[in-house]
Design a protein that fits this description.
alpha+beta; 164 residues; two-stranded antiparallel ribbon; Pnp Oxidase, Chain A; globular; binds flavin mononucleotide
């Protein structure tokens, strides 16, 4: 995918929505899952438009991202889907069907990634690199604040292959 001014608008969409939350939808051959994310980066890297999301070891989402290369970042319209963001930020897909609970309608891309219909913007992502946060490489105040329980994030770097 080429970057252009439309891409810059989508960068703004993601960055301005992160404090409310966005939906990360993951899927493998057997199941789909959705969780709220408040951390992400978006930009240009390795000659590709790229996004990076951070997913903790304990998330069910992590299990799906480890068994499939595709996911979507679903950016809701401002001040919308707040109830759904709360549900998907609390309940785990191990116990709850969050799609049913939120009454989400979904669609599939040609690459087999699943997304929520009705969001403002969807980024289709293809994982190209991942890295677990390493305590010895991290500034100590962040280590103490964010990882005192040792539930580390994995950073998933992904090519943005399509914007919907
Ligand atoms: C506003 C908000 C932002 C969140 N951001 C993240 C995040 O960036 N990474 C993460 O691992 N968990 C994040 N969470 C927590 C997960 O959404 C939550 O633990 C979820 O229940 C995990 O679902 P799962 O087990 O089905 O994957 C966030 C929660 C909220 C409410």
């Amino acid at each position: 995918m080429k970057t252009n001014s439309n891409y810059q608008n989508k960068v703004n969409d993601l960055v301005s929505q992160l404090h409310e939350g966005c939906f990360l939808v993951s899927n493998n051959e057997k199941e789909i899952n959705v969780m709220t994310i408040g951390c992400a980066l978006i930009g240009y890297m390795w000659q590709m438009p790229m996004a990076m999301v951070l997913v903790r070891d304990t998330r069910h989402t992590k299990e799906l991202l480890e068994s499939s290369d595709v996911f979507t970042i679903n950016i809701p319209k401002k001040f919308e889907m707040l109830r759904e963001l709360e549900i998907c930020g609390k309940a785990s897909g191990r116990k709850v069907d969050k799609f049913e609970k939120c009454n989400f309608k979904t669609a599939s891309t040609d690459s087999g990634a699943i997304y929520i219909t009705g969001c403002k913007t969807v980024l289709e992502c293809n994982i190209v690199y991942k890295q677990i946060v390493t305590s010895s490489n991290l500034r100590s105040d962040i280590l103490n604040n964010i990882y005192s329980n040792e539930d580390y994030h994995t950073l998933y770097f992904a090519e943005i292959t399509r914007i919907i």
